[in-house]
Design brief:
heterodimer, A: alpha/beta, Aconitase, domain 4, 4-stranded antiparallel β-sheet, 4-stranded parallel β-sheet, globular, B: alpha/beta, 5-stranded parallel β-sheet, 15 helices, 19 strands, binds iron/sulfur cluster
Chain lengths: ~210, ~475
């Protein structure tokens, strides 16, 4: 069950390349096996963060001060495209990231964020670019504020931007709801749907069992 | 006022609504839940740890594909892969879920076996903890990938909360030139609209060139929907679809078959249905496609040249192109054809079905893999493997110097130690040329099975049309 998300003011790191995919966020071999949780933070963006000899790449933004402390990523379009691996979100989370701001996200990655208490904020590309420019201007010293309740972002120089978010998802993040438990409260509805559907579409429910 | 026409997405969606959650969000019934070795046991264990049980084990099906070795006898399956397989066996047995285990007909890449077994049907809502679940849309199913949390939700409730996506229709019109395949069509589309062109949409593929495609080609098209940014891709079911499904193990039979087909005929979008976005592609101009960079949108025709970052004025785009060129070790402006390759991989849920292997074998027959190239054929399923062997395709391949392997995901995602070595170049029929996808610092070029076979023979990226008989 995700931790509730309310307000956050933190260092933000711009990673502006388009189409940063989930394989770049976390490589598959880090995700094979049970009991991987807790070890993923150091492998987030592994292929960018480390040089072939295993040492840190000093050029990569999350290896530089003050961005090492970043809890927010400001990202290029289509961040998190690619695979459904929720490990991409876990890796960011274990690396200390709590919110991602961008103009668009991979659809499955976007949904996975909410399941883990990470806030993906969608705003116009011009706003994202403006935030990145301000961060660079202050060399990362300027922090970004996010207020989920008020649906606003505050830029390093104090500009406020409003963002839209699905009210259900907003409520889910604010309260840290357990979606499975909520849906199970509707189990009667699920079962009566299935009872009716067995007559409507028996081929769905009796697959391989008909004479 | 008259009701506007409805899209296929709307029709299938509405049939699955258990409850309205908000204006645009519904609780949907899941008809088929497919589990694989990488996430399946984790989901079942997660459920158990919450004190819950599987809501509908009879609608849930499992198979190992991601983390098993595809070497003969499955030799060399890594330790963690074996643990995942064991856990999948134990947990599916305990939950009463049908597992298609290794060496059994039915085992294979999850998106190959669903259609092949008749589990995936038109109008069916299918989910799997894998983004290429969109593949099943080729039969007119509403199918999409989910994350681990959603997976647990489906196990516990047989339902899922989803927001209705926007709709996009892509019409492929005209007659496909000889030698051009479904893979070339979809790569050309991604090149045209970009890797984010479908983000937020459910895509319906339509038009005369889609109607002309066999079902397996439609599965390939839908498979790459996610590479377009769309988690859903679909093709309206037609007589070809019904013929493909008829008689498959889990397909309806007898009276139920007639009833099902009648329902399926009502699924296609109404002629006056309105989509949020429309794209039209004339297929007559499509060449064999090959990617040169690190996103599927980095794609060009085989006669094309590698783009020059200096030719674009947008600094962000220039930097992105340069990153791609550096990673791929390619020179701006050079022709893509003739680029030497070390590896060829023919397999994956995109292109490992019988028709794909036939197309590759047609090029390989009587020729030899170039010296210095390792070329693998990894059939998509146990059934594909057996059918291919019955036709003698395995012989054609092995005589030409290809390695004939056991079914699984293999080098598509390189989860089982089956990787392309750092700096080496591969032509692959899979779906992702991301940085490190086929192994750390591996360089991947995506292409069709026939083009990949041509690259193996030539030892370089080659125009398959010059090798066709
Ligand atoms: S073949 Fe590749 S893309 Fe397809 S399910 Fe396996 S790993 Fe995923």
């Amino acid at each position: 069950m995700p931790k509730p998300f309310g307000k956050l003011t933190a260092v933000a790191a711009p990673i502006m390349r388009s189409n940063i995919d989930t394989d770049v966020i976390i490589r598959i071999e880090r995700l094979v096996g049970n009991g991987i949780r807790g070890s993923l933070g150091k492998w987030a963006f592994g292929s960018l963060r480390y040089l072939p000899d295993g040492s840190e790449n000093p050029e990569f933004i999350l290896n530089r001060a003050p961005y090492r402390e970043a809890e927010i990523l400001v990202t290029g379009p289509n961040f998190g495209c690619g695979s459904s691996r929720e490990g991409a979100v876990w890796a960011l989370q274990e690396r200390g990231i709590r919110a991602v701001i961008g103009s668009s996200f991979g659809d499955i990655f976007f949904a996975n964020c909410f399941q883990n208490g990470i806030l993906p904020v969608v705003v116009d590309k011009a706003i994202v670019d403006g935030l990145a420019a301000e961060i660079e201007l202050t060399q990362g010293a300027g922090r970004i504020g996010i207020d989920l309740e008020a649906q606003t972002i505050t830029s390093p120089t104090g500009k406020q931007h409003r963002f839209e978010i699905d009210p259900r998802r907003r409520a889910g993040l604010l309260e840290g709801l357990d979606e499975v438990a909520l849906t199970l409260q509707r189990d009667d509805e699920i079962r009566s749907f299935q009872a009716a559907d067995r007559n409507q579409r028996p081929w769905i429910h009796f697959a391989g069992k008909q004479s | 006022m008259e009701q506007p026409g409805r899209t296929m997405l709307a029709k299938i969606w509405d049939q699955h609504v258990i409850a309205r959650i908000s204006d645009d969000t519904d609780l949907l019934h899941v008809d088929r839940h497919l589990l694989h070795d990488l996430g399946g046991s984790r989901g079942l264990l997660d459920l158990k740890s919450r004190g819950l049980t599987v809501h509908n084990p009879e609608l849930t099906f499992a198979t190992p594909d991601h983390a098993i070795s595809t070497a003969h006898g499955r030799a060399g399956t890594i330790k963690i892969g074996l643990e995942l397989l064991t856990a999948l066996r134990v947990e599916t047995t305990a939950s009463g879920i049908r597992l298609f285990d290794i060496d059994e007909p039915g085992q294979g890449i999850v998106h190959v076996i669903g259609p092949e077994l008749g589990l995936s049907l038109p109008g069916c809502l299918i989910v799997c903890g894998d983004s290429h679940t969109c593949t099943h849309g080729g039969l007119g199913a509403l199918a999409f990938g989910i994350g681990s949390s959603e997976l647990t939700h489906v196990l516990a409730t047989q339902a899922l909360i989803q927001r209705r996506p926007k709709t996009m229709r892509v019409r492929f019109e005209g007659k496909l030139p000889p030698g051009i395949t479904a893979k070339d069509m979809i790569l050309a589309l991604i090149g045209h609209v970009g890797a984010a062109g479908g983000t937020g949409y459910a895509v319906e593929y339509a038009g005369s060139a889609i109607r002309d495609l066999p079902v397996e080609g439609r599965l390939t098209i839908c498979n790459l929907s996610i590479e377009l940014g769309a988690k859903i891709g679909m093709v309206a079911p037609d007589d070809k679809t019904f013929e493909y499904i008829r008689g498959r193990v889990y397909a309806p039979q007898g009276e139920m078959w007639a009833q099902a087909v009648e329902a399926w005929r009502r699924l296609p979008s109404d002629p006056d249905a309105v989509f949020d976005r429309e794209v039209v592609i004339d297929v007559a101009g499509i060449e064999p496609q090959v990617t040169w960079g690190i996103s599927p949108e980095h794609v060009i025709g085989i006669d094309g040249h590698i783009p020059d970052p200096q030719a674009t004025s947008d600094p962000e785009r220039r930097a992105a192109l340069q990153t791609a060129l550096d990673y791929m070790g390619l020179e701006a402006g050079a022709p893509i054809a003739g680029t030497p390759v070390n590896w060829v991989f023919i397999g994956s849920c995109t292109n490992s079905r019988l028709s794909d292997l036939r197309a590759a074998a047609e090029i390989a027959r009587g020729r030899k893999v170039a010296p210095g190239v390792r070329a693998w054929i990894v059939p998509g399923s146990e059934t594909v493997k057996r059918d291919a062997v019955a036709e003698g395709l395995d012989k054609i391949f092995t005589e030409a110097g290809f390695e004939w392997r056991e079914p699984g995901c293999s080098m598509c995602l390189a989860a089982n130690g089956e990787t392309v070595a750092p700096g080496q170049r591969s032509v692959s029929t899979s779906n992702r040329n991301f940085i490190g996808r086929q192994g750390p610092r591996a360089r991947t070029h995506l292409a069709s099975p026939a083009s990949a076979a041509a690259a193996a023979i030539a030892g370089a990226i080659a125009d398959v049309r010059t090798m066709e008989r």
